[in-house]
Design goal:
CATH superfamily: Biosynthetic peptidoglycan transglycosylase-like
CATH class: Mainly Alpha
CATH architecture: Orthogonal Bundle
Radius of gyration: 19 Å
Number of domains: 1
Strand content: under 5%
Shape: globular
Strand order of the largest sheet: 1-2
Number of strands: 2
Number of helices: 11
Length: about 220
């Protein structure tokens, strides 16, 4: 009986190892294909040259803190990927047999927004991890966060914090109130849902506030 269990575990490990190796290789090829078409430096420069690109100094501290708290609270401490969140999301995905929980860091999301689509696949996930490592090597945390805030989609056709701030509240990102900052920070999780349903939008905003309390950005 013990030998049979050992054989099952051994071959399960071999199958998982081979599967991961194939996915890893395909993800790397997808990453290489993307950056060979357009280098990271060039695509970042294109983003920065867009109309209404806003640097961090022109964005309210409440909004920046809200985004980090709700999206990636270990952002300033990891090297592009969050191992703890990845293990947790892998376990949840395995339990529900889905890819709904991605645990992408802010850096990974920047990689996806620069090069890839919203397609949910392990190959794309691995490719965005490679881009995330490149971003962390070549840019500071603040530069990566700045890119993220200018690439996010908020619903209603608004891309980037400048357009969202003026579109929803008719004011600059620097002048957002705490309420407005926490509202906008919650939208990108499901833009078409939260931006069109006031009740759900407020529920999401309160989740952002709770995250800010939990990670010490606001007094409880």
């Amino acid at each position: 009986m013990k030998k049979l269990i050992f054989k099952i575990l051994f071959w399960t490990f071999i199958i998982l190892f081979i599967t991961f190796s194939i996915l890893f290789g395909l993800g790397y090829l997808k990453y290489r294909e993307a950056i060979e078409k357009l280098s990271l430096q060039n695509i970042v420069q294109e983003v920065r040259e867009k109309d209404n690109y806003t640097n961090l100094k022109g964005i309210s501290d409440d909004y920046k803190n809200a985004v980090v708290a709700i999206e990636d609270h270990r952002f300033y401490n990891h090297n592009g990927i969050d191992i703890i969140s990845m293990i947790r999301s892998t376990y949840v995905n395995f339990k529900i047999k889905s890819l709904d929980y991605g645990a992408s860091t802010i850096t990974q999301q920047v990689g996806r927004l620069l090069y890839f689509t919203q397609e949910k696949s392990p190959i794309r996930k691995i490719a965005e991890i490679f881009v995330a490592f490149d971003l962390e090597k070549k840019y500071s945390k603040d530069e990566i966060l700045e890119l993220y805030l200018n690439l996010m989609y908020f619903g209603n056709g608004y891309y980037g914090i400048y357009d969202a701030s003026y579109g929803f509240f008719d004011k600059s990102p620097k002048d957002l109130t705490f309420y407005e900052a926490t509202y906008l920070a919650g939208l990108p999780n499901a833009p078409s849902v939260y931006s069109e349903d006031d009740k759900l939008g407020e529920e999401r905003r309160l989740q952002v506030v709770d995250a800010m309390k939990k990670y010490g950005y606001v007094d409880k």
